[in-house]
Amino acid sequence: MTNEGATSTRTTPVFFVAGGTGISAETLGNLMLQQFPSVAFERRKFPFVTTVERAREVRGVFDAACTDSVTPLVFSSVSDDEVRQELQQTRCAFIDLFGSHLDLIERVLSVNATHGGAPLHGLGDTRRYDARMKAIEYAMEHDDGASLRHLESADLILVAPSRCGKTPTSMYLALQHGLKVANYPLVEEDFDTGGLPRPIRGLVDRCFGLLSTPARLSQVRGERRPGSKYASMGQCSYELRRAEALYRAHRIPSINSASMSVEEMAAVIMQSSNLSGLL
């Protein structure tokens, strides 16, 4: 075990393997890896591992990454017993996010688990799957104010200056939690008047604001339009100040996205807005 303050220059391979999309394995695995900020990780995902033959191929990739000095980590959410047993033969450190907890749940519920493979979409409930797909379609249609149709159907409306993280957060909330999320950009006219854009004025109770830091916003915008006024520190500082004032004036809750992951932002937004989504 290394000292808590030590810095590692070695890269540790990390694999996420699942019988479905791998979202759960990736999310839970990364949550654990965040507890080791001094370690460098190289991540790779293997979704839809549903047969023993495919599991054997994937295990070969895992074992090929093992060296005398590096032990890769494997986070697995595979539910099928045979597939999981094949994967567990790896020489890597195998973190079973699914099977290791089934015994306890079986004892508590006094019911045996099916130990069967999950459907490819990993949901097991057609209604939940359909709700997610509809939420994704909604988020895509209402990205960056592209459509004003059925805004009143939104569970949430993200409001922010350009490049503050509206789109990835909207898509994550739709895909992971089945929430219908529209996102709407604040533009020069809104900063001048201090008012909300007309299409969302009557929906302020569903609005949530995103902010950033001038330096971070300038960096992100500079990757898109280098050397432009749009990416300048002065413009970014102005827009963020005006956006924050607008949120305060209309009592819109907000967060600073500069140092937060999409997962963290989604969790804070859902908690602050009392949204439960699909569990």
Automatic annotation (TrEMBL):
Positions with a binding annotation for ADP: 160-167
Entry superkingdom: Bacteria
Coiled coil: none
Reaction catalysis annotation: [pyruvate, water dikinase] + ADP = [pyruvate, water dikinase]-phosphate + AMP + H(+); [pyruvate, water dikinase]-phosphate + phosphate + H(+) = [pyruvate, water dikinase] + diphosphate
UniProt KW keywords: Kinase, Nucleotide-binding, Pyruvate, Serine/threonine-protein kinase, Transferase
Main enzyme class: transferase
EC number per UniProt: 2.7.11.33, 2.7.4.28
Function as written in the Swiss-Prot or TrEMBL entry: Bifunctional serine/threonine kinase and phosphorylase involved in the regulation of the phosphoenolpyruvate synthase (PEPS) by catalyzing its phosphorylation/dephosphorylation.
NCBIfam families linked: PRK05339.1
Similarity section: Belongs to the pyruvate, phosphate/water dikinase regulatory protein family. PSRP subfamily.
Identification of the protein by name: Putative phosphoenolpyruvate synthase regulatory protein
Natural source organism: Pedococcus ginsenosidimutans
Lineage: Bacteria, Bacillati, Actinomycetota, Actinomycetes, Micrococcales
